[in-house]
Amino acid sequence: MTHERFIHYPKISVMFIKCHNYHPLLLGMILERSTGMSVSEYLRTKIWEKVGAQSDASWSLDSEKSGFEKMESGLNFRSIDFAKIGSMLLHRGKWNGQTLVSEEWLDRSIIASEPMNASGIGYQYMWYSFANEKGGYDYFAHGNHGQYLYISPENNTVIVRTGMEEGTIDTWIVALYQMAVYAGSLKN
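^ that's the sequence the OP posted. Answer follows.
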């Protein structure tokens, strides 16, 4: 770990861990070698096409020579397609009745088995999670430049935050959590 940053808010304390970039690179290498496909090809065939992504994505390369995609950053796509992936996760790995990701894998990978520390935020398999006030878990992915894919199952909400940096807000997680709670309170 390179450094930690704590953010405190009533009932939510956020701690971000900045991991070394070689962790996701190693995962990409393992995925390529175990499937015989590039990571982008695997994503395209297993998820992207099946959720009906509206636009092609691009993936920055770590090496032009090898064609290896940058796993720590560099995946670029439109917000609507990001939201579709979030919706698939919100619906327990299903998209239009078809299972794209098993519920067992989601249970093992998205919700951390225990918090990292007193902050209450857990980190596991590139996902952050925390117990919410309704007794369930909210979880999110956090990009290198302030991008978020935030999923709140109890509030039936997916939030996508794009950007080139965190901006001036101190606590995106608190803001996203509050938005999810508000969205969950709305009734049609």
